[in-house]
Amino acid sequence: VMNAWAKSALMKNREESNEKSILTNCAGEHAERLLGEMWDQYESTSDPNLRPTQFSYATAISAWARTAAHVHGSESRKCANRAEDLLEKMEKLAQTHGWADLHPTTYCVNAVMNAWAKTRSKGRVLGAKRAQQILERMVRLYDSGHGRQEVRPNVVSFNTVIDAWAKSGEPRSERHAESILRRMDELSSNPDTRHHYEDCRPDTISYNAVVHAWGRSRDPSAARRAEAILRRMEQRYEEDIKKGVDRNNIITPDVTTYTSVINAWARSREKDAASRAESVLKRMEKASSSSLSAKKKNSKSANFAARPTVLSYNTVLNAWAKSSYPEAADRALSLLKQLEDGKRGVRPDVFTYTSAIDALAKSGTKKSAEKAEEILEKMEALYNETGDDKVRPNVRTYTSVIHALSRGKCDPRRAQSILDRMEQLSAEESSLRPDVVSFNAVINAWGWSDTAHKARRAREIYLRMKELHESGANKDARPDLITCNSILNACAYTTGKIETENDSGWDNENNSDGGAQERAEALDIAVQTLEEFQSVSPKLGRPNHITYGTMIMAITNLMTPTQSSTADNTAKEGSEDKNRENGEDISNDVSCLRTDLAIATFWQCCREGQVSPFVISQLRNVVSEATFCEMLGDAAVPRGNRGHGEATDHKQSESGVEKEHKYCCDMKKLPEEWTTFSRGKKSRPSRKKYSEQVSKR
Questions:
Q1: Distance (Å, rounded) from C-alpha 553 to C-alpha 614?
Q2: How much is the mean pLDDT over the chain?
Q3: Is the entire prediction scored with pTM above 0.85?
């Protein structure tokens, strides 16, 4: 019965349990309660057959380990502590009563380490540290030679600690895991210790856990370290084959090993990361193809475990999708075609196609956007023909096509039509309901186009999102900060063109009156949108440095310098002589309405602690040199005295005339409260990169 609880679900009625009762109704508690009943029976009858044994305690400890894997935070740590308490009780009973069959065994100690390894949330780092401490104690007891052969560490002991570190999330966890792997190697290969630690020889699980840890690491060298371990495994595999080691004991780099290394390269920021990922895939293919041919010859050197799966190919495609390599899209399409032709032995699935579309979207050309649409149509046709859910487009697929259309600067109506199609399909299949990422992608499609009234279109989508979310029709359509920033971006780049239809389709023409009206409308939309998000902050997200910088940009682009306030004339009269003496253009020093609004927005940004180099650069483009220096005080420094952390120096363009700025901003000299929430933020590198900003799923 205890063993059944050890293998059971977390508790009988978890939905009826509250936080206080969670550990009083779980598998570990039930198993330990039965252990107590066994002791009661033994004490009342003195029947030795009823006395708990090592297996009894090991089972109860395993139950607590299983419970630790299903609860969070402090509760999981309590489970691990309860498991360790049982281990200490075993030791005390064995020493007090001389019951040799109650001395903790390797299995019992491994179960306690497993309990600590299973701790979740913030307890994972603590769990990994505690598991390693217990392992060190095992090694010390075994090395001491005080008759503690029953706690001899084995490969499971070391693998448990490696796995604990690999999943801990601690910044240097991968290095801790690799150090344990090296220790296993040393103990099992050193002539002085290998006889005692022959059961600690690393196996495929040991290596895979460390490779997986490096694959998840943010260390810049993570991919190279992961591949170095793979090469070591390949070398060990060849050596073991030559030595005639039993196949069950051979360290074999399998599909998990190779795919983890590919994933490490897919996550890497190195320029050749995608090429390196594909080279690892080719090594897999070479190993699997030689294995297939060797299988017919009954060769002992064949590595049948290295054959790539669709996940392996998808991971390489994902690497190309993230790559900045100019031919990334072509490489992705080439690999996709080979899978479709059946040359690789696996068939593409929805993730394969979606990754290829992502690569096309990254290239940002109209040709790539058209190819993305073509792939989507092919997927829909395949699904309609076969009914195979593995190739059915999902929300991410449709959204990726929208991104491709947006970045290819295609007609935004095409992106809008895909969104409309998603909403229609979601009436029958809720999993295809567009989410905030989908809506934001269409807003970006409008914002990046040269279509007339794109700001109005962007806001209409936002209002649709609000309606769907607030009515409960689509909870995933809740607007976020990216929605706000994308609308402001559409406003900032409104050029005031009107749309006409000719024989070849839609075209845009300049119109001074219509253009002025459209710019005025875009400015109203920008102000209204910012005020709405500020009024509900932080419910839909807190306006950040991109928000305020883009708002200032919108004011600069949408308002003409001739729109002057009363203060302009006063400032003009009071500063005309001084400006002439300094050789400055009077018209640029006049405090106009545009400048007033930009300055007011900047002070809002300061109060929110969101000032960044991007915000400074936008402010610099709208205010005069004197106003810039007055507002920034000591932080405004002459060009040439530029220090580290300084805002990027830009040229101000006014009516097509560029002017060099004499002063720039030293970010370090700004008041600390101005930059509280924007420290480390860089100036916006380019309009294109900003347009790719989308919400996280």
A1: 10
A2: 83
A3: no
